[in-house]
Amino acid sequence: MDGLDSVLDRALGGRPVAGGTRTEPLATPATAAQPTGELPATPDPATVRRLLAGALPALRQCAGDQVGMANAAIIVRNDGTVASVSIAGAPFGGTPQGACMEGILQRLQFPRFQQSTFQIRYPFVIRPQT
Q1: Residue in 119, 124, 129, 70 with CA at minimum distance from that of residue 95
Q2: The pTM is what?
Q3: CA separation, residue 49 to residues 12, 31, 66 (Å)
Q4: In sequence order, what are the residues at sequence separation of 6 or more whose Cβ sits closer than 8 angstroms to the Cβ of residue 120?
Q5: Does 57 have pLDDT greater than 50?
Q6: CA gyration radius for the chain?
Q7: Residue 71 DSSP label
Q8: Distance separating alpha carbons of residues 15 and 48, to the nearest angstrom
Q9: What is the rounded CA–CA span in Å between residue 98 and residue 92?
Q10: Buried b (16+ CB within 10 A) or exposed e, 28-41
Q11: Average pLDDT for the chain
Q12: pLDDT at 84 over 90
């Protein structure tokens, strides 16, 4: 499981921790303490991870009986709305299941930030529903 955590952390801009495979967020103005009322440069990685993890149950419903990796590419505007999203790779890219997943991710609302846009590449592991 540490391997998957590392992949997900790197997908969100993490860096390797000395002596281990886990990663920690890069020190950026977005993760540094901000004065009250000032927006971070980019969304906080932990918040992004939480929002994406919260979408997983709906993504699993979109997948139906399909299992595999759904590679999401998401561009977020600085007002927190999703500008674009695409699901690529087998077995979901270019399928009705992938289109359903794109619709779920398109409706996510991220916190506001300063940069004009923020790009996320996130691999969702879709396992059988139990």
Answers
A1: 70
A2: 0.71
A3: 8, 14, 23
A4: 11, 12, 48, 52, 72, 73, 74, 75, 76
A5: yes
A6: 15
A7: E
A8: 16
A9: 5
A10: eebbeeeeeeeebe
A11: 81
A12: yes
Query: In this structure, what DSSP letter does residue 74 have?
Result: E
Exposure class string for 61-96: b at 16+ Cβ within 10 A, else e: ebbeebeeebbbebebbbeeebeebbbeeeebeeee
Dump pLDDT digits (tens) for 31-51: 344 444 699 999 999 999 999
Q: Containing H/E element for 110?
A: none
Provide the CATH topology of domain 40-126: 3.30.1150
| 17: its two tokens | 């921790």
52: nearest Cα among 9, 96, 113: 9
- Strand 117-126 and strand 68-77: pairing? antiparallel
Report the amino acid identity of residue 121. Answer: R
Q: Cβ distance 68 to 128 under 8 Å?
A: no
